[in-house]
Design brief:
homodimer
């Protein structure tokens, strides 16, 4: 009834894919467009698509990002071909008349308390960040996602005057296999799952 | 340099995949194990793996879930072969001595204010929810993720006495193509992205 992808694809997406610490290669703008043209189709609540993406590629943009990075993440991030700032727009609901046109979905969110909006934006913006990671892998790119940075500094440097907030960062490129350690363990099925 | 998956795979994961409202088929427990054995490899901060998954399959479990569902989501969810409750464990850091054994990562989180822990758990638990959606698609399953339910009621019915909180739900099965409308629009590259 169901048609799984082949083992090569399952490996590339999940089983042998790794978080790399060093990257080589160049990523042209056409590849970044292909990446967005895949990830954009991933589902979000009310199709709100709250994520926003800055592809940090130029020396100038890397220099703006550098002071916000934790020391342990700085050198590897500055050396990566591209670093994506995955953010989310707290005013995401202003796009709903276009994104969810068959009803007034904007009114479900506009005027809600900031904490409730943040939960929706963080949940769905993080889903889209994961779509970015797996879309990159599906295009043959390796990824290095990380949370080790100062969100307020990134927001000030890249999102001042907007309602966009940084969520996490993802380095992109061709992963250097000498930059990784053996994979850390995962929870067993019975530790993380229940069939009820 | 990079090897993309073929068009069939990119379609199955992103381009022609849809959020379905009606499902058929049966999903055996072995398939749920295969699903977890893919999604578990997706990256999370400090490999913390905060997501927890309840696969609601039995009539008894569906009856426990029913009162928490919004009216518009109730019938389709009760009729789906499996509904996954994607949750996250607020005490996720207690697993870090196993999951991130090379340093004392537990001390990075234990005792932090609840709001900060919630951000980490929601961010990374949502990433894992997206890995579940794409792992399901990679196994040929269709998905129906949704936020339209009462989180507090689900937590009371399924997670009482634990530190686990519900995040969102995902119906699984063989999608009925007559249950969907034309796909809603997505933001253009320049509305959602910036190359800097």
């Amino acid at each position: 009834m169901f048609s799984p992808l082949n083992d090569t694809a399952l490996d590339q997406l999940f089983r042998t894919a790794r978080t790399y610490n060093a990257f080589s290669g160049e990523i042209d703008d056409a590849t970044l467009h292909r990446l967005y043209d895949l990830l954009k189709f991933g589902p979000t609540a009310a199709n709100a698509c709250p994520a926003r993406f800055v592809f940090v590629k130029s020396a100038e943009a890397k220099a703006k990002l550098a002071p916000a990075l934790d020391a342990g993440n700085r050198d590897k991030t500055l050396a990566a071909p591209v670093t994506v700032i995955v953010g989310y727009d707290m005013a995401f609901y202003d796009k709903l008349p276009v994104l969810f046109p068959h009803t007034d979905a904007r009114s479900w969110f506009a005027g809600k308390p900031e904490a409730a909006l943040e939960t929706v934006a963080l949940r769905n913006g993080s889903l889209q960040g994961a779509y970015l990671i797996l879309a990159a892998r599906s295009l043959g790119l390796d990824t290095g996602p990380m949370s080790g940075f100062d969100n307020a500094k990134v927001d000030e440097a890249f999102f001042a005057g907007t309602a966009i907030r940084s969520n996490f960062l993802v380095n992109l490129g061709k992963g250097d296999t000498s930059s990784i350690f053996p994979r850390s363990p995962r929870l067993g099925f019975d530790e993380a799952c229940l069939i009820a």
